[in-house]
């Protein structure tokens, strides 16, 4: 189950507690583009990763095809807890020959 409960605390606090990027690792979409060449003719690659964490994804039971999302509806609607969190990461790297 990994750090399921710890990840919920971090996501719920929007990173005020814990390591927000680490919480999202493992579930993301990505794209990459070669943006040019460096002075040694090695490709420069721009990489973008993004992730949306919702109550459904945050409460998905590992190894199962269901989540505990239904039980969070009241908390989300009445208290604003477990609202969706979006994260974008963008970095550039040189790929050595």
Commentary on this structure:
By secondary structure, the chain is of the alpha+beta class. The chain has 4 helices and 3 strands. The chain has one domain. The chain has helices at 4-12, 20-24, 55-58, 73-79; strands at residues 29-37, 43-53, 85-94. The radius of gyration is 18 Å and the shape is elongated.
Pick out its properties.
alpha+beta, elongated, 97 residues, 3 strands, single chain, 26% helix
Uncertain segments are: none
Helix content percent band:
25-40%
Strand order of the largest sheet: 1-2-3
Strand content: 25-35%
Please trace the helix and strand order, writing H or E for each element. HHEEHHE
Number of domains: 1
CA-CA gap between termini = 39 Å
> Would you report the number of β strands?
3
Major sheet: 3 strands, antiparallel
In DSSP terms, counting alpha (H) and pi (I) runs of 4 or more, how many helices?
4
**Shape, principal axes of CA atoms:** elongated
Structural class: alpha+beta
Mean pLDDT: 76
Report the radius of gyration as a whole number of Å: 18 Å
Helix-strand blueprint:
Blueprint: H1 4-12, H2 20-24, E1 29-37, E2 43-53, H3 55-58, H4 73-79, E3 85-94
Antiparallel strand pairs: 1-2, 2-3
Q: Summarize this, please?
A:
The protein has 97 residues and is α+β, with helices and mostly antiparallel strands. Helix content is 26%, strand content 31%. The chain is elongated.
């Amino acid at each position: 189950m990994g750090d399921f409960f710890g990840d919920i605390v971090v996501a719920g606090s929007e990173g005020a507690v814990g390591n927000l990027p680490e919480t999202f690792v493992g579930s993301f979409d990505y794209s990459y583009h070669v943006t040019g060449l460096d002075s040694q003719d090695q490709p420069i690659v721009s990489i973008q990763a993004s992730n949306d964490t919702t109550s459904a994804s945050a409460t998905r039971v590992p190894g199962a095809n269901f989540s505990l999302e239904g039980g969070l509806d009241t908390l989300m609607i009445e208290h604003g807890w477990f609202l969706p969190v979006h994260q974008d990461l963008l970095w550039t790297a040189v790929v050595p020959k």
